[in-house]
Amino acid sequence: MITLDERLRAIRATAVAMAEDLRSRALAVDAEPAAMEQHLDSPAFALIRRSEAPPGQDRQGPPLPTPGSCLENVVGMVELARGDTGVLLSCPSPGLAGAFVELLGDEAQKARFHARLADGGTWTFFAMSEEGRGSDATAMESRLEPDGSGGWLLHGAKRYIGQGARGGVGVVFARTGPSPLSIRAALVELPAPGWWAEPLEMVGLRGACLSELRFDGVPVPGDMLLGQHLPVTRRGIWAATRTFHRMRVRVAAAAVGTGLAMAEYVAEHREDAPGLDRVRARAEAARQLTYEAAARVDLAPDRGQPSNIAKLTATRMAVETAHWAGAALGPAGLLDHPLLEKWTRDVRAFEFMEGTGTIQRLHIARGHRNGETDG
Question: Structure pTM?
Answer without folding.
Answer: 0.92
